[in-house]
Amino acid sequence: MNLRRREAISLQLITALGAAALLFPFLWMISASLQTLQEVEAFPPIWIPAEPQWSNYVDAILNYNIGRALINSAVITTVSVVGQLIVCSLGAYAFSRLRFPGRDTIFLLFLATMMIPHYVTIIPLYTMVWSAGLIDTYTALIFPGLFSPFGTFLLRQFFNQIPISLDEATLIDGGNHWHIYLFVIMPLSRAGLGALGIFSFLGIWNTLFWPVLVINSKELFTLPLALAMAQGQFVTLIHVQMAGSVIACIPVIVIFLMLQKQFISSIALSGMKQ
Amino acid sequence: MSSSQAQADLAGNGRAGRRRPRMSGIARKEAIAGYIAISPWLLGFLIFQLVPILAALYISSTEWRILSVPEFIGLRNFDKLLFNDDLFWQSIKVTVIYVIFRVPFSAMLSLALALLMNQQLAGRRLFRTIYYLPAVIPLVAVSMMWIWIFNPEYGVMNSIIRVFGIEGPQWIHSSRWALPALIIMSLWQVGTGMVIFLAGLQGIPAHLYEAATIDGANTWQKFLSITLPMLSPVVLFALVMNVIGSFQIFTQAYIMTGGGPGNATLFLVLYIYRNAFEWFHMGYAAALAWVLFLVVLIISIIMLRSSERWVHYEGRMGGA
Amino acid sequence: MTDQNLSRRRFLQGSALVAGGAFVAACAPVAGDSGAAESGEGESMSEEPVELVAQYWGTRPEFIEDREILAQRMSEKFPNVTASQNSVPGGQYGEKVLTAIAAGTPPDTMQLNHRWEPFFRGQEALLNVIPFADADGEFTFDVFYPRIIELGTNEGQLVTVPRGWNPFVIYYNRALFAEAGLDDLPTSWETDTWTWDSFLETAQALTNDSDGDGRTDVYGMFFPYWYPFLRLGGGDVLSDDQQSSGLGSPEALAALQWLADLRLTHSVSPTPAEIEGLGSAQDLFTAGRVAMFTAGAWGIGALTRVEGLDWDVGPLPRAAGQPPVGYTQYYGHGIPKGTQSADWSWEYLKIISDEESNITVAQTIGDVPAMSHVAESEHFAGLPKPPTRQVFIDSAPHMQVWPTIAPITEIMDRAVTPELNLAFVGEKSVEDAVAAAGPMVDEILAGFWGN
Questions:
Q1: Model confidence over C228-244: pLDDT tens digits?
Q2: Which whole number is the average pLDDT over C415-431?
Q3: Using 50, 70 and 90 to split pLDDT, how confident is the model at C351?
Q4: CATH classification for the domain delimited by B79-317, as one of 3.10.150.10, 2.40.110.10, 3.40.50.720, 1.10.3720.10
Q5: Is residue A241 predicted with pLDDT exceeding 90?
Q6: Please, what is the angle between helix A149-161 and helix B228-247, to 10°?
Q7: Helical residues (DSSP H) of C153-307, grouped into ranges
Q8: C-alpha distance from residue C360 to each of C69, C111, C141, C226, C355 (Å)
Q9: Do A228 and C89 touch (CB under 8 A)?
Q10: What is the mean pLDDT of residues B122-147?
């Protein structure tokens, strides 16, 4: 018992130490967001600003239109994440649970598409989006991202963890595949769906390359676009950018806190104890 | 058919296909349901992924300066990169070294972290969030922080090394140490892997652990005989994604080293980007992209095929 | 039936339509190749509603405001025109414009500088503006600095109407100069006592370790750019006939060695590691860590905003036996081929480059306007800070620019800079770096000329 306690305490200590190391950049980002430009650029870095510059936040929100961008990003990201969860889970279900000709070829094919850097496919994609008259619309930002091979692969792996006996029980009870998908697989994959939710939220929330190409109107700017505006050609307003970054981080952290409930379950409490 | 069987093996999933012989009517119903389920995804995939990729395949056989007409040159781009481009081989070398070091280390670290975060710890939710934070912070802030950490004179890294009486290297300012620096930096972003493993751990039924405890298994035995096999589909996913992702490393090098010093961190995707959008050799960039594709595809196929031996799918093994 | 017959745009549109058939693409408009009027007189300009977009890089609030005003003025002058701007961060400019042009939807005007002009010109993607100017009664190139027009004209073609230029000068901290007992820098570019030797002596006098901890606190100088010095020393990246590397010439080798020595032998310039975290040269300068640095006129704007900083500018020092060199980077705007109407683009371009716009360049943006009479007026030369603004203007007769050959970015980024950077941190000798870069430069040039 004594050994157990000592083990537990040392684990706790390691966790805390590691956390402190990882927290370092985050704390600096918050600190930098409250410094003057000169303080931010001082070297070695200054940790406590002489006087907190809350005006950086005002500057970020007013000059770089962060407020509007936040709303845009929220709309685009929410629609994209929900869409991805639906589309990818359907695809993953088929790849995990159904037999149909060409299944594994398609799976391999889609896996392979992740290996091509988008820099070489971006012009054809842009041309398509433009031909469809979608330049400078939300749709251009949302649609191409919905069909994520990453999400489908992730969910397929989670679905494969679920015992097939449950499917068979449903089929014996007269259910069909929609029943299995809705009432067996989805409820049991909350952890996987939660993880995908976080990843896709973060990915879409932070993406810059594609929005730069397809968005022209300031009214449609997403958060990364608005933040990139603070990046000057010769002078980067790091302090304002950091204030914007802090604002940008908050929704992601909130989403993480919300979704991480999916990772805590009774199993962890009863099964993995020591 | 042996070829479709092989493909099932490649995809690491022969589960549903192999087990139960079914009546053709049911099989047909299942196939139709399958097509319906994947159709939204498949349609989008074909339009938004496959068409641009096929276009890129054609582009790779052209000399295309983006603003002029693409000129068909057959395999000359591939000929050039294989036999006449030292920078291509440099970028392959640098990228492969990065992947070899990064993938196993970061997988082990994030698995360890996930196991740790699955323990009964005070403030577990808080720690979990903190460990995920590095993935949340914009790369600009992250990179600036690491530039400081690696600063030869004032940086944390060399301060620690100095404790042992050794003067640390120049890190990102040295063509020898820049790549190791970026590898070390990459290990810090293990939050994503942690979340995947953590989610995977929730899928392991508690009764397995209870049964093992009754049998007198210790923590390590439980890890080896229950956690690892049950987690293996997720481990496979994490490894494959990690390999694909590591081959795509770009932003850190773009911001922190610009590929230097002296091309020491010229990763393949950075080289592709430069060829495409800075030097305007889109045809050559596409050819490079296809080489990257082939390399990653071969590695992925090897991983998926070998996974038959170590990945445990619940349906197939019939409940441990 | 070769693939060459398939035009780029048709190919792209083909692939788009194949895919787009799945949704609405079939009925989408497809831009034609027409509209690239080669002459200014072309079709008469209609009164139909027109939407014009000017493409820029740089996104600081004052830039955005300036461009908003230009768009408004265009819309006011022509009631049927709705003019707007499209500004992207500098790092994304290439992707944005290239993608748009490749898809057949070029902006109506686009910003150009030494970085972009060579490539777009080389790809014949820009219209020659001279015919437009000739046909236009109210426009003349005579108001611009003649040297800018001369350097920009290539085989009778001019693609950029200039708006501003950035002569490189030495910015110096007068307080640190006084502390070291040094006189102010000369103001004339012809001064023959302001040489590389006296520049080095000045830098040495300024470099010091004020707290005696063995670390240099103030560096005499900082050169974020090596190219101006290469030109000052009489060398260049390319040979005179532009057929091969010019880095092996005695002048080029001597200049590069001198630059490397500033840091490695004389320690008057910081290494990259030592200045880390401080961002740009002017940040170092503002912090008092560097007494002199080289930059274009863009330094004025940033430094003027710093209160209590006593600074001024001086000419670049002359190398032994070399004439003065006023290295500069100019920028302006051009008309991409394939715009909806080249005549409307020209009208927009005229407003972007006119006198009122030049005044904004001088007063708000802080660069030297391209129109000489605006530069020499109270809008630029007459402004109080720095006291010797004339130094910028006086560089005009000695103006030299970045190489204009189309593959220059590839030559620099791929072949030259990685090698020279190794030499500047002491990992390689200058000779070895130049020897390694040379064949790569030659190869890129051979590929370029061979085409």
A1: 999 999 999 999 999 99
A2: 93
A3: very high
A4: 1.10.3720.10
A5: no
A6: 170
A7: 174-179, 196-206, 227-232, 250-264, 281-286, 298-304
A8: 10, 16, 19, 30, 9
A9: yes
A10: 79
Q: Residue B43: its chain C contacts at CB < 8 A?
A: 22
Residues 184-223 of A with CB under 8 A from B: 188-192, 194-195, 198-199, 202, 206
- pLDDT higher than threshold 80 for residue C204: yes
Instruction: Tell me which residue in C8, C20, C418 faces B68 most closely, judged by beta carbons.
Output: C8
Nearest to C165 by CA among C140, C144, C142, C141: C144
CATH superfamily of A64-229: MetI-like (1.10.3720.10)
Q: List the domain boundaries for chain B.
A: 79-317
What's the average model confidence in pLDDT over B128-150?
79
CB nearest B233 (choices: A28, A91, A160): A160
Which residue carries 């409820």 as its tokens?
Answer: A187
Q: Determine whether the interchain pair C428/B262 forms a contact, defined as Cβ–Cβ distance below 8 Å.
A: yes
Nearest Cβ partner for C277 among A45, A216, A232: A45
Q: What is the pTM of this model?
A: 0.86
Q: Which residues of chain A from 159 to 188 reach within 8 Å of chain C, CB to CB?
A: none
Predicted confidence band of residue B318 (pLDDT cuts 50, 70, 90): very low
pLDDT digits (tens, 9 = 90+) for C102-134: 888 899 999 999 999 999 998 889 999 999 999
| B12, containing H or E segment | none
User: Nearest residue on chain A to B238, judged by CA atoms?
Assistant: A154
E strands within chain B?
62-63, 71-72
Of the candidates C130, C77, C150, the residue with the CA atom closest to the CA atom of residue C357: C77
Q: Which residues of C touch B62 (CB under 8 A)?
A: 3
pLDDT band at B265 (very low <50, low <70, confident <90, very high): very high
Whole-Å CA distances, B166 to A65, B150, B157, C213: 49, 15, 12, 20
Interface test with B, best of C33, C97, C98 (most B CBs within 10 A): C98
